[in-house]
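Fill in residues.
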């Protein structure tokens, strides 16, 4: 019965190989399903990022986000096999990645997918940082709105006081008469300083993503400018008299 024993051993060996092949096929199918799900998830995240960028650009008044270039096909090894789905030809063999110019670059599809996921995560992080920065104004972004307004109006009043000093010197040499000097000091320069501060806050105190005008604290600004410039004039006259 030596022939029968050899036949039985061959059958057992063939059966073991068939079972091993079935297990390998199941594992390969599971790997492909996992990769395909990962590719689908990344595609959804990229689409959401593109939509969010378009919304941010429209809100900030920036040019629309250009359409992205056609992306790569499925991750190698993530398909469901030739002739499935759209009936297109199979992609590159598992274990290879198509690089620029169509050159084959060896790589693990799972590693390629993991690297793509890392890049998408980084894009999410940078996008959140950019959105947070866009919520702040360009001028003194870390200051509170009230402190920013006070700083702007005080700065504009200081510039008005410098012009007032020039007018005082011009009055001393006879270029500007006293009436003009008094009118500009008490009304003209304070009003110009206030308007300048109000415009600065509207232009550089507004966040890029703001949908409404930022608070400009007009009464506070008018009070600062109306007091600061004449007060600087009085201090200037007192200093001149003490020097003389």
């Amino acid at each position: 019965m030596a022939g029968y024993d050899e036949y039985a051993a061959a059958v057992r060996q063939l059966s073991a190989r068939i079972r091993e092949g079935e297990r390998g096929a199941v594992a390969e199918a599971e790997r492909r399903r996992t990769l395909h799900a990962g590719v689908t998830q990344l595609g959804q995240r990229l689409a959401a990022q593109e939509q969010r960028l378009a919304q941010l650009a429209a809100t900030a008044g920036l040019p629309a986000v250009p359409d992205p270039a056609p992306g790569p096909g499925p991750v190698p090894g993530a398909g469901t096999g030739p002739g499935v789905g759209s009936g297109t030809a199979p992609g590159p063999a598992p274990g290879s990645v198509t690089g620029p110019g169509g050159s084959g670059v060896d790589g693990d599809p799972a590693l390629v997918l993991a690297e793509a996921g890392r890049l998408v995560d980084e894009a999410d992080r940078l996008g959140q940082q950019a959105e947070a920065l866009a919520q702040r104004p360009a001028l003194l972004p870390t200051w509170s709105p009230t402190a920013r307004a006070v700083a702007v109006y005080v700065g504009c009043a200081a510039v008005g006081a410098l012009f007032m000093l020039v007018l005082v010197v011009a009055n001393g040499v006879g270029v500007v008469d006293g009436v003009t000097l008094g009118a500009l000091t008490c009304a003209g320069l304070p009003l110009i300083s206030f308007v300048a501060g109000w415009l600065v806050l509207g232009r550089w105190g507004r966040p890029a993503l703001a949908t409404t005008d930022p608070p400009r604290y007009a009464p506070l600004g008018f009070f600062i400018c109306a007091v600061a410039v004449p007060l600087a004039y009085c201090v200037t006259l007192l200093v001149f008299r003490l020097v003389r």
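The mean pLDDT is 80.
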